[in-house]
Structures are given as structure tokens and as C-alpha cells.
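Lab notebook, bench 4. The sequencing result for the construct came back, and we need a structural model before the next group meeting so we can plan mutations. Quick request posted to the team channel:

Model the 3D structure of this chain.
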Amino acid sequence: MMMFMLIVLLVFVIYFIIFYKRQGTVSRPIFILLLFSIITSISLAENYISSLIPQINDGIGVSNDLAKWIITDDVRWTHELFKQYYISSVNISLLLLVIYSVVVLFEKNWK
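Done. Here's the predicted structure in C-alpha cell form:
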């Protein structure tokens, strides 16, 4: 999970620098990060739900590639672990939504 977070953070910093230098806005990189976070939440939700249905897999497994990047083979896979990753992802998405809303309001007031 740490490698995945570092890659996402690196991509965000690059987008932030590009958009800030070209357009002077901060909201667009945050919006891109928010969209990616929502896609990640959907991927982790699908993984969690499919882990609850034993007929889909032979036991428990990671069901998509994005979830495989986040949930590595280093940990013991359980339903609780998948649920924990999903809830954390949703919380991050909600936090990013609040941050994006605040940044958009400040940008409109500054212009």
C-alpha cells in the first residue's frame, strides 16, 4: 500500500505543479485526485463485495488489478481487511470532496 500511495502522491505533485504554473489554479489537481479516489473506492468496494460471495473465488482473493496494487500479498487477506481498506478509501474520498469544495470557494472569491 505504501508504494501505491507514493505513486499517487508523486503524480499529484506533478499535476499540481503543472496546473499551478500554467493556470494558477489548485482545484484541478485536487479534482483529478478526487476522481481517482472515487474510482479506487469503487474498485475496493467491488473487491470487498466479491470476497463475501464464496462462489466467485476459490476462497478469498483480490478481484481486480487496482485493488491488487493497494492490497498486496504481504498481508493475510480477510473480509475485515478488505472492509477496512474500503472504508478508509471512502473516508479519503469524502475528505478530498470537502477539500475540493473549500478550495473552489476560495478560488472564486480570490478572482
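The chain has one domain: 2-110.
Will bring this to the meeting.
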